Amino acid sequence: MSISKRLGWYLDQQGVEYRLLPHPHSHCSKETADLAHIPEEQLAKSVLLEDELGYIIAVIPASNRLALKELGKQLDRELQLATEVELGQVFAGCEIGAVPAVGEAFGIPTIFDDCLLNEPEVYFEAGDHTDLVHINASEFGRLFATAKHGRFSHPDPYPH
């Protein structure tokens, strides 16, 4: 698949410099980082959440776990995980579970964890389970300049 058409179009429209990093098919973000030979801290994992106000994408390092209640308090929302059916509807053109971190490309507000700002490079799903988008820190900052951000994840105490 390479990159979702919608994501590729959005990145090109924003003038983002990126490259694709192919890797063997993976089933979870930790496996993706391992197969792509990148640090888990640099792989941005996206989680689609929802409430009565709509959808939001929370982006955290693959090495961390989402603190859903903390995020809900920060946003003053009662968020819950979206279903796989909703993932398929919202991210048409992407494989289920390969959610790109750039929600704006799909009309979804995005919030990212501040710890991603400490990384020199960031990788995220291109829309399938065999390719990642690779950007440097300055491009990440530019791409997410208007996105909300905060601390709402913690290192995973049970790494796979």
Helicity, in percent?
10-25%
State the shape.
globular
CATH fold category name: YbaK protein
Figure out the total of helices: 5
Please compute the radius of gyration using only Cα atoms: 14 Å
- The H-level CATH homologous superfamily, spelled out, is YbaK/aminoacyl-tRNA synthetase-associated domain
Q: How far do the termini sit from each other? A: 27 Å
CATH architectural label: Alpha-Beta Complex
Total count of strands: 10
**Helix and strand string, N-terminal first?**
HEHEEEHEHEEEHEE
β content, as a range?
A: 25-35%
CATH class: Alpha Beta
Low-confidence segments, ≥5 residues, pLDDT <50? none
Q: Summarize model confidence as the mean pLDDT.
A: 95
Question: What descriptors fit this protein?
Answer:
10 strands, globular, 5 helices, eight-stranded mixed sheet, YbaK protein, 160 residues, alpha/beta
